[in-house]
Write a structure and sequence with these properties.
heterodimer; A: about 280 residues; mainly alpha; 11 helices; B: Rossmann fold; 4-stranded antiparallel β-sheet; 10 helices
Chain lengths: ~280, ~250
């Protein structure tokens, strides 16, 4: 009887703790959103998005940083995604478990654990100085590409692994070559998972600060080419707040960042769902 | 070897690593017949079928000795074009395996791989294949719907149609009705009867009743060995080997 009661006791305590865990997660998220949006939303007007920053960012808008953010993230994905997906395909379709695949996996796991500032330092020494690309969209983008590689590789590999082996067997049995099997059956089936990985990477790229300052600079001038230095929204936010230039504008930038990420996520989710519905 | 045989299997042994799955198989197979290979589980039926279009190549660590001739050419010859071979010898697996795409794209998958087919020709091919597999009437209004929404029996006939779209010469069927209800099974068996006019069919049935219902000739497999083969009537009523008799009368298996 006593034992029984203690079992029920344990059950209710566990239930309480688990609920608390879930609720506090949501509470933290709401608090952050609320804080940023409360301070930031009043600043957000169309002009804020379309005007370039003036007077160090005290006045004007964030247009050049918005462009900088998108350009940098675009370059990062342009280089990082194909490389990562290619590596995942290699690991899953071209090798069995072997020394090479273990070395590659160990390498990506290590990369995943490296702090972003170290990537920044590497990018600064290698791209900015060694290759003489200067603080630029290209230097920053390539650095971020290296940073997001582990995420792209592991999520792509996971979704390729989840494809039933029978799909491949069918493709081969219908006279498909390995390449045809990969491009027509494996990758299309893995696409939602790969896309999710790329989405995570976009989020990381947009939010990155330390590595970006070191490799893409913090110039407020509108970029004209891939070799122009830029300032991303995250860096803008950091500098505005850190140097006490304008908290109002900092919050505005933060709110814009959140909305941007939210918008990208919603759009991507919509695309993924549409794709999956179309295929099943 | 036997005159007029479509396929001749000669002294064929097959190994998964150290495990021997087929032992010294010798078997001629005539065109325009249904040849059924039956026997208990793990007797080597699937291995034999997959050896016939070299899907076993995909498995690591396999080995074989002996030869398999298709129209007199050894399919294990190094000059054989694998993708071409697999188009000539199509296989249907034990469980329906539609690809996650539309009905149309499933059927067109094979023809499109060779890039020789233009769109309007594809429509013809798809319709013809679906008609041959007795599926056209059921799906003609939703060709661009997902193949995954078809019933199990329809999916299996889709897989047959997908093979037929390649206009192969030999059809391998590995327990194609194992996951299906009796009505779907009947419609697939009727389809097979129609198909044998144009194709050489090798069928691993999911039970011996099916073997006796549909086949012209039968071979009994046990532990990787071909115990005996002959006309279905003889195999099921007057088997020469005691083991065949025990199996067909239900003493084991």
């Amino acid at each position: 009887m006593i034992i029984n009661r203690s079992r029920y006791m344990t059950q209710s305590i566990a239930k309480f703790l688990i609920w608390m865990g879930a609720l506090s997660t949501i509470a933290v998220m709401i608090l952050i959103l609320f804080q940023i949006l409360k301070e930031g939303l009043p600043v957000l007007h169309l002009r804020f998005f379309l005007d370039s920053p003036k007077n160090m960012g005290r006045e004007g808008g964030i247009f050049s940083t918005l462009i900088g953010t998108m350009a940098l993230t675009g370059v990062a994905i342009f280089f990082g995604a194909p490389l990562g997906v290619g590596t995942a395909v290699f690991l899953r379709e071209f090798t069995r478990e072997s020394k090479i695949s273990r070395v590659i996996r160990f390498g990506t796991d290590c990369l995943a654990g490296v702090p972003s500032i170290i990537f920044g330092l590497f990018g600064f020494v290698f791209f900015v100085i060694q290759l003489n690309m200067g603080w630029s969209i290209l230097s920053g983008g390539l650095t971020l590409a290296a940073m997001i590689l582990p995420t792209v590789i592991s999520t792509s590999e996971e979704s390729i692994r989840a494809i039933p082996p029978s799909y491949r067997e069918v493709s081969y049995s219908l006279g498909g070559t390995k390449w045809q099997t990969i491009t027509r059956v494996v990758l299309p089936s893995a696409l939602p998972g790969i896309f999710t990985g790329i989405l995570l990477s976009i989020g990381r790229s947009i939010g990155e600060t330390a590595a970006v300052i070191l490799t893409a600079g913090s110039s407020l001038v509108m970029p004209t080419s891939l070799f122009s230095p830029i300032r991303t929204m995250s860096v803008h936010f950091y500098i505005l707040a850190r140097e006490g230039i304008s908290m109002e504008m900092a919050y505005g930038t933060g709110a814009a960042l959140i909305l941007l990420v939210l918008m990208i996520n919603m759009m991507a989710q919509w695309l993924i769902n549409r794709y999956i519905r179309h295929r099943t | 070897m036997s005159q007029g045989s479509k396929i001749v299997i000669k002294d064929f042994n097959f190994y998964y690593g150290a495990v021997q799955a087929l032992r010294n198989i010798n078997l001629p197979i005539q065109p325009n017949q249904i040849f059924t290979i039956f026997g208990p589980a793990r007797s080597g039926k699937t291995t034999l079928l997959k050896s016939l279009n070299r899907l076993t190549d995909l498995i690591f660590g396999t080995n074989h000795t002996g030869s398999i001739f298709l129209d007199g050419t050894d399919i294990y010859d190094s000059k054989v074009d694998l993708t071409h071979l697999r188009r000539r010898i199509g296989i249907v697996f034990d469980l329906p395996t539609p690809l996650p795409m539309s009905i149309f794209d499933n059927i067109a998958y094979g023809p499109k791989l060779s890039r020789t087919n233009r769109r309007n020709r594809l429509n013809e091919i798809v319709e013809k294949a679906l008609r041959s597999a007795a599926l056209w009437e059921e799906v003609k209004d939703r060709l661009h719907g997902s193949a995954l929404r078809l019933s199990g029996g329809q999916q299996q006939r889709l897989c047959i149609a997908r093979i037929l779209a390649l206009e192969p010469e030999v059809l391998l069927l590995d327990e194609p009705c194992s996951g299906l209800d009796p009505i779907s099974t009947t419609s697939i068996e009727e389809t097979l009867f129609q198909l044998k006019k144009d194709y050489t069919i090798i069928l691993a049935p999911h039970n011996i009743q099916q073997a006796s219902r549909v086949a012209d000739r039968a071979g009994f497999f046990l532990n990787g060995e071909l115990v005996e083969e002959g006309p279905v009537y003889q195999i099921f009523t007057k088997p020469r080997d005691k083991r065949t008799e025990d199996y067909v009368t239900g003493k084991f298996g």
